[in-house]
Description:
Structural class: alpha/beta
Number of strands: 15
Distance between the termini: 67 Å
Largest sheet: 5 strands, mixed
Strand content: 5-15%
Radius of gyration: 36 Å
Helix content: 40-55%
Strand order of the largest sheet: 1-5-4-3-2
Amino acid sequence: MPLHLADLVALPELRLSVVAAPDRLNRPVEAAHVSELLRPGPWLQGGELLMTIGLLLPMTTQACHAYVRDCAAAGASALVLGLGHDLPHQQAPAPLIAAAAEADLPLLTVPDEVPFIAVTKAVFAAKAAEQHRALERAFDAQRRLTAAAASGRGLTATLEAWVDATGVGAAVTDLLGRPIAAAGLDNLDPFGPEGLPPRITQLARKVVARGLRGSASSTEYNLGVEVQPLGANRLRGLLVLAGALAPDHRMPASGLVSLLSLELERRHLADEPERRRRSALLGRLLSEGVSAEHARHVLALAGLASDAVRAVAVEPADGTAADAAAEAAADLALAVPGGLVRVHDGLVEAVVGEDLGLLDVLTRFAPGSPAGIGPAVPPEAATGSLRQARALVGVSRALGHPAEAHEARSARLLLEFGDRRALRGYADAVLGPLDSADPTGDLARTLATWLDTGGSWDETSRRLAVHRHTARNRVDKAMRLTGRNLDDGDDRFDLWLATRIRQGTWTPEA
Length: 510
């Protein structure tokens, strides 16, 4: 417990007397300071027991009120006036008592038999004892956490020991924010079974982006939330703390992170046989001539129920090929339902249900790694999807982000890899007549929207917030100006490609 004024007043050796604001003795005391300045406020930080003999202070109503207001505004915990036969005052002057009472600032007196240094020593001895008790509480909490971690009851036991020691709720999640274990969150409910809520998800993403060096905090839910990374050499999970952390909780919090990281690393090693089993299952799924019945049987063994699957191939971004691929495969196996992941020919290969948000998974578990994503196919055709995924790894390396099967169309590749000046000239040649006739760009914008919506007048008018007849008239005028015919396949492709170039799907070279 912090030191309060009442604790000092209760010490008989100090012989402190309260002469003003006796109902304010619950104020904490952070330090003791002696000053004879008339305006000591600029030299205070708050919480000080300010001691003076009133040597320079005129004992007038105006001077005392100004002095007390300055001390109170600076956050002084109380004033102590030294009394004595050889000192300016033998008792507290009435103007000073009145000013302290009006400001609700406690005024104490100390007799000349008790020097100010005795009060100072008492304050700092009490502060040292407080810090010692806080250190003992921290060590006790750390011992309880260690005992729980060594009990063999996993993450939940360690989190429960943390909650018992601190009262702060805690949870361990994977890198997607899905809960692995939690304790003390029944009343706080910062996440549900599907993962963290959006406001805390933003904190988690910041930590994941920075890896083991990252942490983030917020004041969500009016209680304070912290997210800490877990893992030894690689990010294995996240620790979410929900509650107000006291200063003496910081040391156990560091120990909690270490113990949870060790447990996640232990789990990682213990899961190796299961990862090998699922890798073998993936090999069976990708074998030549697999039947639909056998493919669904393999998915059932992996606990994956899906009518269609997609394959993904990932090239490790760092480290030696074997080590980086194995680590990336282990990370990905935790992220994807079914865990059908293997390392083959230097790439990490996986087969997942078509509904899984692969781009989000790759961003979290394989940031910066070239990756190809195959099309959704029946389970027995997973090999074909994987073949396309592997072929797209090179495209992904050039694009700088994961490449999906539908991005492999020739027009898309032309936009990404074609000569920029040639593409700009091509777009100017096709759309130049619209630039001259319509400087506002409405015609070109309407044409581009109509082409992007597959020729839907209703959707075009909705996106542009214009009447469908207005949209049709603009497109008809664009056709007259460009001399193109929307019923002609070549003309339609030329217009689509030119509008895509103008929409900025690439960055022109200088």
